[in-house]
């Protein structure tokens, strides 16, 4: 007698694959600490290389971030301490199936501040809000929507190509350094500097965003930096800047946070 072999139609196979994919998607969300927020976009006709914003990055492309950047509401920005942090953001289709792309997700780097208007705006405290560059926003939502979508977000490790970069600014006795292309948690908690004629590490102070300053005259000295991230990881970049350095130059390390 011929055995009866169950057959699955093409439609049934599609439903099965879709169900499995959806379950994996839900399991991935449940496996991490996802929080609720909202997202908008800015810079429709703006060159993405100008998205440095309140964190002080001269150019996100040169800083190693590309176009997937975001401004953060005050609840997330932490007075600039969040600059450089990375977030995985997903459009929440459970709340908005019309405008959210299926499985729409993007990893963004915090480079800017979304100022509150104190009149119930999206960036007013205590709202958790991402005002994304348009290239990032279009990874999670359809073009042509009303401009705001519900999202789920979580902190993720920043993955950078190459090492941490140090750009020297300032003049005479005022030294300022912009630290960019930082991996790991991405957000910097503290920085110290040491010259070749300096015995001890000198604490630097956040000037704004990712720019750190000191008032010591370290010209004509080889410079080293000690950088501590918000997650507690510390790394020393010894003699990363040669003694012949000039203001405006950028020096890249071969070392990176992971």
From TrEMBL:
It is found in: Secreted, Cell wall; Membrane. Transmembrane segments: none annotated. Residues 173-253 form the Expansin-like CBD domain. Keywords: Cell wall, Cell wall biogenesis/degradation, Membrane, Secreted, Signal. CDD domains: DPBB_EXPA_N (cd22274). The keyword Membrane applies. Residues 1-31 form the signal peptide. It is a peripheral membrane protein. It comes from the Eukaryota. Gene3D superfamilies: Expansin, cellulose-binding-like domain (2.60.40.760), RlpA-like domain (2.40.40.10). Residues 52-163 form the Expansin-like EG45 domain. Pfam families: DPBB_1, Expansin_C. SUPFAM superfamilies: Barwin-like endoglucanases (SSF50685), PHL pollen allergen (SSF49590). The keyword Aminoacyl-tRNA synthetase does not apply. Its main location: secreted. Belongs to the expansin family. Expansin A subfamily. Causes loosening and extension of plant cell walls by disrupting non-covalent bonding between cellulose microfibrils and matrix glucans. No enzymatic activity has been found. This is Expansin. It comes from Datura stramonium.
